[in-house]
Amino acid sequence: MTASNNDDFVVFDHVQKSYDGELLVVKDLNLSIGKGEFLTLLGPSGSGKTTCLMMLAGFETATNGDIRLDGNPINNIPPHKRGIGMVFQNYALFPHMTVGENLAFPLEVRKMGKSEREEKVKYALDMVQMGDFAGRRPAQLSGGQQQRIALARALVFNPQLVLMDEPLGALDKQLREHMQYEIKHLHESLGITVVYVTHDQSEALTMSDRVAVFEDGRIQQLSSPDDLYERPENSFVAQFIGENNKLVGTVAAVKGTTATVKLDNGSVTEALAVNCGEVGDRTTLSIRPERVDLGGKKTKNTTDALVKELIYLGDHIRCRMEVHGNDEFIVKVPNAAGHKHLVEGEKTTVTWAKEDCRALDA
Amino acid sequence: MSNTETVLASDGSSLKQSLARSLRRQKIRALLLIAPLLLFVLLTFIAPIVDMLFRSVENSIVQETLPTTVVELASWDAESGNPPSEAVFEALARDLKVAVASKSHTRLGSRLNYEQTGVSSLFRQTGRQIKKLDLEATPSFKDAFEKMNKRWLEPEVWTVLQAFSGKYTDGYFLAAADLTRGADGIEVVPEDEKIYFKLFLRTLQMSMTITIMCILLGYPIAFLLATLPLRSSNMLMILVLLPFWTSLLVRTSAWKVLLQQQGVINDFLVWAHIVADDNRLELINNVTGTVIAMTHILLPFMILPLFSVMKTIPPTYMRAAKSMGANDFTAFRRVYFPQSIPGIGAGSILVFILSIGYYITPEIVGGTKGVFISNRIAYHISSSLNWGLGAALGAILLVVVLALYWMYDKFVGIDNVKLG
Questions:
Q1: Which residue of B312, B322, B323, B329 is the best one to mutate when testing the A interface, meaning the one whose CB has the most A CBs within 10 A?
Q2: Is any Cβ of chain A less than 8 angstroms from the Cβ of B327?
Q3: What is the rounded CA–CA span in Å between residue B76 and residue A248?
Q4: Predicted confidence band of residue A317 (pLDDT cuts 50, 70, 90)
Q5: A10-235 — its CATH code?
Q6: In what order do the strands lie in the sheet with A161-165?
Q7: Among A84, A94, A163, whose Cβ lies nearest the Cβ of B317?
Q8: What is the pLDDT of residues A266-294, one digit of tens each?
Q9: CATH 1.10.3720.10 given to domain B196-416
Q10: Which of A238, A259, B137, B215 minimizes the number of CB atoms within 10 Å of its CB?
Q11: pLDDT > 50? residue A182
């Protein structure tokens, strides 16, 4: 699925939000979402991602700035006139109605005829493989089934935009992974635009075309999942997405894309200059555990390491070692034939490519 | 293992028995914990109620006061129109001698006076004169009684005596239902003497009005309480509960001050030229007064169950409805309101049952037109001392309430009631 980023289907234009007039929950948000795109707002709780979703749905008003849907400003349009489908965290299926009545509700309020309504309800239920459940009450369904119904209900009136607020948060791990694929497939087959909120990074990476990482009311990075993981732009994103090794130091020299960094324990190393500021600035180096080589050929970035702890995880072995004075340095050693077998307390060397060590903000 | 086979515990005894044995201690302890309250309730609540209800059919006073007369009178034919035989009069004379000595004849007189007026004075007068009567030297007891009071020869008195000579009577219940036992069996009393049926009907109507007023006034407040942020909703809750901490009498008396013709509300309306000074509204000592005061007093009983139900309705339901295209009103009507019905049910039952038996407030602000059946019961218990009739009215009230409760369960379902 290729989302054209030039297509400004949903636009947040300098949007700010404050609940109490003192604190900004969302600080100057600028975001364009293309038609047919699957965009995830990812961030820790309290980072402003749900507030953004609620502003888009119309349940919160933007304190400042414009939100545009398909070119039209929607700040003053009440939620029921926006035509946006929404899936809630706890499904919000109406307990006093059957599954069929729940699905028919959005069609009824649109004054659709009975036969057309029934046809659409049936189609939507079949879409989520729940065709036989129209007569049941939500309370008689399992969590996963309720989730499917909530999904079908948000899609039954053919909205162009569907918002999902941590829809899989209440499901167990296996079901959650299964539903991730189902939602992804529905998105692809229907060609709708989805804005998805979650605090689960693996969910975000699996499903999205693009991910917006929120922290402190700002988007820290907006990019595709692989960029987000492999090319984080600041230390928050590096730390928040996936596992990360941190080395702290001061920039000694910057030459092209290469930064020479004097680490706090006195040693000097080279890194890719991404967001490290100027000479003399503090910087954090970020290295992914799977990009660290044990032993190997000696390069400029080879350094001594002391094995502190080994954890056997089947397909790989997690090795905690002391590197450059950081004793929380993690290396993933693949459990493959011919690989070096480490023991605790052993002294060895580790190496990484300069490109895999990113010098970010302090 | 087949179903009929008994499951055995490890020591060979039946598993059921050993389970019962192991649970016995717990059961005894539970019983001991509730025993003080259970005993208290039995002695001060259940027993008096049973005793009072029994009084509505109990009628041993005639048998106890005139034992031989009742036996002799049994063979008398009331239809004949003649006074009973000499033997009956003799028995009456002997019974009355005994009764006068213990002064129980006046009590019998006032009991029978409920059934036929004048019987009380007849017994009093006869009681005074019978002391002079020499039982051994009376040639004809019939003549002797005729001399004492001519009414003894009229069959009406004897009909009543015979009708109420049984140990139990339905007389109180007939009276409570505006019926009487005439010459041709049970018949309805004349229209102008019907009081209890009208009173029951008025009690039900007024309770219904009060319940509906409480729903109309309480629903928005409960909604506000459930949706406001915690700080302001706590403040509002205190205002709702404030009346609970004020004496009922004080509140009712305050309504007297507010509602009377020279009261605060009328004064204000006259001052604002909404009503003329010579045409002040009658707001008290009638149905209006009772409904206003009782709605105020019972309102918290509607708000609290409504609030506790509304509190459990997550706001996401309304949001979901709106996101699907329902405007505020439709979302409320189709999604919020149906889920708040259990609260309305609980509040209505509470308010209705409380108001149907209310006494103090209608007594103070109800005048004569705004009183409930309970005021009539209180009158019979404490003023007219016709406890049997009071008990019969109370029993009917109890049955009506239970019947309404049953109907409610049948049509609404008591499972749909949530008190919190």
A1: B323
A2: yes
A3: 120
A4: confident
A5: 3.40.50.300
A6: A84-87, A161-165, A193-198, A38-42, A210-215, A218-223
A7: A94
A8: 888 888 988 888 888 889 999 999 888 88
A9: yes
A10: B137
A11: yes
